[in-house]
């Protein structure tokens, strides 16, 4: 593994909910890693909910992660499962007559790890989202064995969501590398006090506090991430 002292194999980015900024932070991490001289690739194991361009379906998260990656890998590894409806992954899979196989995702991740210094894996929804009748995103993260970065969407209720998610991550036995406070609304009342409350109660470092951006882009977002803390160097 090349790249300025980093000896890990990647990160698993989860969030307190859907639409809290996981893709935004994952893309910014990739951008920062690439700028640090690390080869990197994003992975979205399961994408549910597509958009349409000229009558062709596309999955925005997958496109954003690919655009932010320095290694252009096989799209079938980057995104093993994609479904059209914006519904829970196990439901979307069932509608498509598919059973999501963790083994297939793990194999794709290992293939990506062979091609890049860092693989940034973005979950779907939150930590305990089911993937099939037996397994959840937490089981997938455990099997991948990557340290977790928790993106907290800073809004009313986020303290409870952040601490519940951190407790569930701890229960899964996966290391929590840190958390990111992401301001997903322009004027969250008592933002600093909410951040401080989470920081007091969570046993993991704050890796960045993201302000609300009128037009978020990874160049801005990465400025508010402590990459040295992420890479533990
Ligand atoms: N700090 C921010 N300031 C302003 N807008 C933000 C910020 N972070 C994220 N957003 C916006 O919020 C929306 C949701 O972000 P994003 O797609 O990264 O969430 P997600 O957790 O990946 O969602 P999903 O569960 O669908 O994967 C996007 O439109 C994104 O641009
Ligand atoms: Mg996303």
Q: Helix and strand layout, with pairings?
A:
Elements: E1 10-15, H1 22-35, E2 40-43, E3 46-48, E4 51-53, E5 56-58, H2 60-68, H3 75-78, E6 81-83, H4 89-95, H5 102-113, E7 118-122, H6 137-144, E8 148-153, H7 158-172, E9 176-182, H8 191-201, E10 206-210, H9 218-222, H10 227-230
Parallel strand pairs: 1-7, 1-8, 2-7, 3-6, 8-9, 9-10
Antiparallel strand pairs: 4-5
Bound molecules: adenosine-5'-triphosphate and magnesium ion (MG).
Percent strand: 15-25%
Low-confidence stretches: 1-5
Strand element count: 10
Q: In the CATH scheme, what's the topology name?
A: Rossmann fold
Percent of residues in helices:
25-40%
Strand neighbour order, sheet with most strands: 2-7-1-8-9-10
Task: Give the structure's gist in a few sentences.
By secondary structure, this protein is α/β, with parallel strands linked by helices. It has ten helices and ten strands.
Task: Name the features.
single chain, 233 residues, alpha/beta, Rossmann fold, 6-stranded parallel β-sheet, two-stranded parallel ribbon, 10 helices, 19% strand, globular, disordered N terminus, binds adenosine-5'-triphosphate, binds magnesium ion
Walk me through what this model shows.
By secondary structure, the chain is of the alpha/beta class. It has a single domain, classed as Rossmann fold (3-Layer(aba) Sandwich). The chain contains ten helices and ten strands. A six-stranded parallel beta sheet has the order 2-7-1-8-9-10, with helices on both faces. The chain has a two-stranded parallel ribbon with strand order 3-6. A hairpin with a 2-residue loop joins strand 4 and strand 5. The longest helix has 15 residues. It is globular. The N terminus is likely disordered. The structure holds adenosine-5'-triphosphate and magnesium ion (MG). Adenosine-5'-triphosphate (ATP) binds next to helix 1.
């Amino acid at each position: 593994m090349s790249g300025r002292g980093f000896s890990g194999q990647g990160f698993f980015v989860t969030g307190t909910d859907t639409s809290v900024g996981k893709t935004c932070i994952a893309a910014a991490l990739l951008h920062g890693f690439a700028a640090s001289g690390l080869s990197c690739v994003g992975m979205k194991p399961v994408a549910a909910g597509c958009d349409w361009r000229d009558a062709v379906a596309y999955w925005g998260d997958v496109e954003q992660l690919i655009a932010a990656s320095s290694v252009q890998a096989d799209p079938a590894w980057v995104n093993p499962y994609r479904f059209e409806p914006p519904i829970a992954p196990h439901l979307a899979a069932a509608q498509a007559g598919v059973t999501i196989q963790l083994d297939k995702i793990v194999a794709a991740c290992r293939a990506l790890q062979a091609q890049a210094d860092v693989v940034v894996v973005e979950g779907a929804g939150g930590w305990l989202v089911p993937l099939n009748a037996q397994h959840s995103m937490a089981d997938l993260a455990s099997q991948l064995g990557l340290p977790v970065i928790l993106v907290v969407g800073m809004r009313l209720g986020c303290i409870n969501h952040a601490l519940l998610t951190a407790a569930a991550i701890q229960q899964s036995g996966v290391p929590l590398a840190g958390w990111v406070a992401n301001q997903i609304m322009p004027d969250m009342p008592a933002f600093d006090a909410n951040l401080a409350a989470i920081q007091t109660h969570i046993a993991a470092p704050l890796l960045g506090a993201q302000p609300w951006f009128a037009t978020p882009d990874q160049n801005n977002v990465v400025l508010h991430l402590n990459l040295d803390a992420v890479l533990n160097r």
